[in-house]
Amino acid sequence: MITVKGIVLKEKAVGENGKFIDVLTAENGVIELTVKGARKINSEFLSSTQLFAYSEFCYNESGKYRFLNSAEPIRIFYNLRNSLSKVSLACYFAEVLLYCAEPQPNNDILRLFLNTLHFLEKDLRNEKMLKSIFELRLMSEIGFMPDIVGCHSCGAFEPNEAFFSMKDGCFFCKECFSGNPYNFYKINISVLSSVRHIVLTDFDRLFNFRTSENTMNILSDFAEKYLLFCLERNFRTLDFYKSLK
């Protein structure tokens, strides 16, 4: 018997009453569990295996399959369903995690997702801020941390304007920049400072920063473009979320 704590990222019906669930865990990344009878109205697994349920799962392995034996819910995040915008954003996060999470231990990715959902459900931060934090911090956790300490040429730390190369993952100050501006993302020091905070700060302080609405708009666009560039694909859940706006 194996016991893990994790959050459900995806459900898929199978058979008459069963389903498969994809669960993000700290110990093994994303795992798939087979849940027999999960869709029965009186199933003991009804709450603990629903989408975005953070639960403790006990399962048995048989060949390449994992069969759920018991589960105990820890946090359901049920109130996300009260807002189409919130639940759509959470589904986007889940789709990204399913695509890029490696089958190996990474407690920080699970912690990032849980904390982001907490702030989203409780309206403690706005959606643009949470989306930017999730996108940039996740990219940093999986090996795509941008080089934002200083200008790639001269090392300038606080340039008034900076030109960020998505391809190279670094920026150049205005004085050192000599490339085609259409191939770079232009940001100011306020956006650069926000990016630095997101990718470099400790988890305990990750969600504790404030910025202007204009800076947040640029940061949100930058973070999304950076994630899509790194992962080299689009996400249908992101398209749907943006259609709501």
Per-chain topology:
Layout: E1 2-14, E2 18-25, E3 29-35, E4 54-62, E5 65-75, H1 84-100, H2 107-121, H3 127-141, E6 161-165, E7 170-173, E8 185-188, H4 189-200, H5 213-231, H6 236-243
Antiparallel strand pairs: 1-2, 1-4, 2-3, 4-5, 6-7, 6-8
Helix pairs in contact: 1-6, 2-3, 3-5, 4-5
- Measured on Cα atoms, how large is the radius of gyration? 20 Å
What best-fitting shape do the alpha-carbon axes yield? elongated
Please give the number of β-strands: 8
Low-confidence blocks of residues: none
Characterize the main sheet.
Answer: 5 strands, antiparallel
Q: Structural class per helix/strand content?
A: alpha+beta
Spatial separation of the terminal alpha carbons: 45 Å
Side by side, the strands of the main sheet go 3-2-1-4-5
Element pattern in H and E: EEEEEHHHEEEHHH
| Overall pLDDT level | 94
Indicate the percent of residues in helices.
Answer: 25-40%
Beta-strand percentage?
Answer: 15-25%
Helical element count?
6
What do you see in this structure?
This protein is of the alpha+beta class. Helix content is 35%, strand content 25%. The chain has helices at 84-100, 107-121, 127-141, 189-200, 213-231, 236-243; strands spanning 2-14, 18-25, 29-35, 54-62, 65-75, 161-165, 170-173, 185-188. A five-stranded antiparallel β-sheet has the order 3-2-1-4-5. α1 (84-100) packs antiparallel against α6, α3 (127-141) runs parallel beside α5 (213-231) and α4 (189-200) crosses α5 (213-231). It is elongated, with a radius of gyration of 20 Å.
